[in-house]
Amino acid sequence: MSLLLPTCIIVCFSKGLICCNEPFNYRVNNGRVIGGSDAKPNTWKWQVSLQLDSYNEGSFGHICGGSIVDSFYILTAAHCIISSDVSQYRVAVGEYSLFEFDGSEQFTSVETIIVHPDWNGDLAKGNDIALLKLANPIYDNGYVEIANLPYADQMLPHGFTCYITGWGLMDYNGSVPDKLQEAPLDVVEHAVCSQPEWWGSIALKTMLCAGGDGVISGCQGDSGGPLNCLTDGVWRVHGVVSYGPAGVCNQPFKPTVFTRVSSFLHWMYSVMDQRLEIRQKSSVL
Q1: Quick one: which of 148, 79, 147, 161 has its CA closest to 113?
Q2: Which of 267, 223, 269 has the alpha carbon at shortest distance from 115?
Q3: This protein's superkingdom (predicted)?
Q4: pLDDT 10s digit of each residue in the chain, 285 long?
């Protein structure tokens, strides 16, 4: 089984990826997380729209999702990083309708991109995770919130219901939603997801599978976004959208695959603590 390399603008090879698509800066209707529905405004406050200015013309379009994990940091997928030029990116938080100004949005430029050191562009090897350090901090305007994270190495039981959120396509040739979408996905435990008729050996323990019923799934444009799970009475971001089947996204036995956040907490905290320390020292000088 061959997987996609993350040269993501529109390129989706066989058997592959929920990739970052052509920037969504045009108006179309009726698309959604497949099988999903409009989220209630001001619900998933940590949801991010990662946007790209492909031609440095000042016109940004949605390419991926993400999650607020600190006032200065955004969590997303490594394969969403399709340019090393930080000036081409911006982050939209407090966003709900991509094509209307809701008055709740904050738009912030990216200062630094930190991709996991073991990410090599091969989704089958995992490590599809990245942090974006923002040029300016996100402030609390009532429409944003820092995501709660799972415990280190926490794994969810088979059949546990979580929610995927994002502005992804309905299918490979589908349309783009204007409003944030949400959809329930049931966790598929590693022992099942790694079976040959499912994702087989490319489903690693550092990944989290959810869905696979042939009805509900993530799709292009959802990459990097959160899998939100209510554990211990708190909504936590347990996954980062990584890959799924090429073509029609909601295929039976091919659940959406997420980077398992609980497997990367030590790396995340080490990066954020280091950068925070550098920023604090700089402010003293």
Answers
A1: 79
A2: 267
A3: Eukaryota
A4: 223 323 333 333 233 344 444 443 322 222 347 888 999 999 999 999 999 998 888 889 999 999 999 999 999 999 999 999 999 999 999 999 998 898 999 999 999 999 999 999 999 999 999 999 999 999 999 999 999 999 999 999 999 999 999 999 855 556 778 899 999 999 999 999 999 999 999 999 999 999 999 999 999 999 999 999 999 999 999 999 999 997 789 999 999 999 999 999 999 999 998 665 555 454 443
The answer to whether 240 touches 99, Cβ cutoff 8 Å, is no
Whether 273 is a known active-site residue: answer no
Residue with tokens 């409009």: 38
Q: Is 266 a catalytic residue?
A: no
Q: Which of 53, 70, 128, 222 is catalytic?
A: 128
Q: What share of the chain is helix, strand, coil (3-state, %, to 5)?
A: 15, 30, 55
Q: Given 79, 116, 190, 238, which residue is catalytic?
A: 79
Rounded to the nearest 10°, the torsion over CA 128, 160, 165, 269 is -40
Considering the entire predicted model, what is its pTM? 0.86
Domain 161-262 is in which class? mainly beta
